[in-house]
């Protein structure tokens, strides 16, 4: 493996994740989405359910490179860096949730969006918390201690759900995390997409999600330390396969579930991510495969910025209304461009692909200008 190219497979993995995030978050119509591009209704795992945990895994993988400099920094400087990055990502998530800060009222006029119904948690907020907790575990407990602490978190989360949940502790209503979020955050500041106030990026379920970051760190560190060792890739494949099997076995008693981020889901998704990264390492670093990698590399060089911009573009669409039916621009594009040209389901998919390409052009321009936004 070439030392100077050690980031390429990581950039491709991370970029693939961002591209998939944009694709699954931007269908032309939620009524016309192919099943692999939908989340599981509750228990289970679809390809779409792999995207978010893969990104957390990539965050940990990147930490294994970035945190080397922590060894030369004072304790205060390390804490400052971790807390600053955590706070920045969290605040960006809040601002994206609030954006564009105005909305239509019942009379069709613009009014300011109040803070009384602002969703507090979300994807970026979970990334921030998982990074912060994961970075602290790795820095202060070192790899072995962080691994043990992560196992305790996964087992402890299972115990909390089992002992403090309702008669069906892994259900929407019986999940104790729901009660915690209602008590601390309040229903006005929670996601409403499940029929009741429920936060899929809730406080309690953030604990097992930290495992995706820590395991990503451990995998990245192992690859760096053993990049020239014989059998490195085989051991990585075996580890990934073992985690998948463990996740499936654990899932027989603690169902694989993204929305409450069960511990079995963490093991299962980390296992698949490890296998996918192993394939990329083999092709890119060992076989010098370069065909098509630049497309995903572009996303991987500015991942958080491009993800935020994907949300900004969609939210701006809803500010503009077009046509006789006064449709928002998002619906108008699908109903008057993509759906007539390609049909219901293909048009909805191509709508998402169009936005992947649109955001890629932004990333490509930034790469050409050597603009890399780090948080």
From TrEMBL:
Origin superkingdom: Bacteria
The record's section on InterPro entries has:
DUF5009
Query: Tell me, what's a Pfam family for it?
Result: DUF5009
Query: Keywords on this record?
Result: Membrane, Transmembrane, Transmembrane helix
Q: What are the residue boundaries of the DUF5009 domain, all occurrences included?
A: 9-92
Answer whether the UniProt record assigns the keyword Transmembrane helix to this protein.
yes
The UniProt transmembrane annotation reads 12-30, 50-67, 87-106, 118-138, 145-164, 202-220, 232-253, 265-284, 304-322, 342-365
Q: What is this protein called?
A: DUF5009 domain-containing protein
**Source organism of the structure:** Chitinophaga alhagiae
What does the organism's lineage look like at the top? Answer: Bacteria, Pseudomonadati, Bacteroidota, Chitinophagia, Chitinophagales
């Amino acid at each position: 493996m070439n030392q100077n190219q050690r980031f390429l497979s990581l950039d491709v993995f991370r970029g693939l994740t961002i591209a998939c995030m944009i694709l699954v978050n931007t269908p032309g119509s939620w009524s016309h989405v192919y099943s692999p591009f939908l989340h599981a209704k509750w228990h289970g795992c679809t390809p779409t359910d792999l995207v978010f945990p893969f990104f957390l895994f990539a965050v940990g993988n990147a930490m294994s490179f970035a945190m080397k400099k922590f060894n030369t920094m004072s304790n205060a400087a390390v804490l400052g860096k971790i807390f600053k990055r955590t706070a920045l990502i969290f605040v960006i998530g809040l601002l994206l949730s609030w954006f564009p800060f105005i909305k239509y009222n019942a009379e069709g006029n613009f009014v300011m969006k109040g803070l009384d119904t602002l969703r507090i948690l979300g994807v970026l907020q979970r990334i921030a918390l998982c990074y912060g907790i994961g970075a602290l575990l790795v820095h202060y407990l070192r790899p072995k201690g962080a691994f043990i602490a992560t196992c305790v978190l996964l087992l402890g989360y299972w115990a909390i759900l089992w002992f403090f949940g309702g008669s069906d502790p892994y259900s929407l209503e019986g999940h104790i995390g729901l009660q915690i979020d209602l008590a601390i955050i309040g229903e006005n500041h929670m996601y409403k997409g499940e029929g009741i106030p429920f936060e899929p990026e809730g406080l309690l379920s953030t604990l097992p999600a930290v495992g995706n970051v820590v395991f990503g760190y451990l995998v990245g560190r192992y690859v760096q330390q053993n990049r020239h060792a014989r059998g490195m890739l085989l051991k990585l494949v075996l580890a990934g396969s073992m985690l998948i099997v463990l996740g499936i076995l654990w899932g027989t008693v603690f169902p694989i579930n993204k929305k409450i981020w069960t511990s079995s889901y963490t093991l299962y998704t980390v296992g698949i991510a490890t296998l996918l990264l192993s394939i990329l390492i083999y092709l890119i670093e060992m076989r010098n495969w370069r065909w098509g990698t630049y497309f995903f590399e572009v996303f991987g060089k500015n991942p958080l910025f491009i993800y935020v911009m994907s949300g900004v573009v969609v939210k701006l669409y809803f500010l503009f209304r077009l046509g006789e039916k006064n449709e928002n621009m998002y619906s108008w594009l699908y109903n008057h461009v993509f759906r007539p040209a390609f049909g219901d389901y293909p048009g909805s998919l191509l709508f998402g692909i169009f936005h992947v390409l649109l955001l890629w052009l932004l990333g490509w321009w930034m790469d050409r200008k050597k603009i890399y936004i780090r948080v």
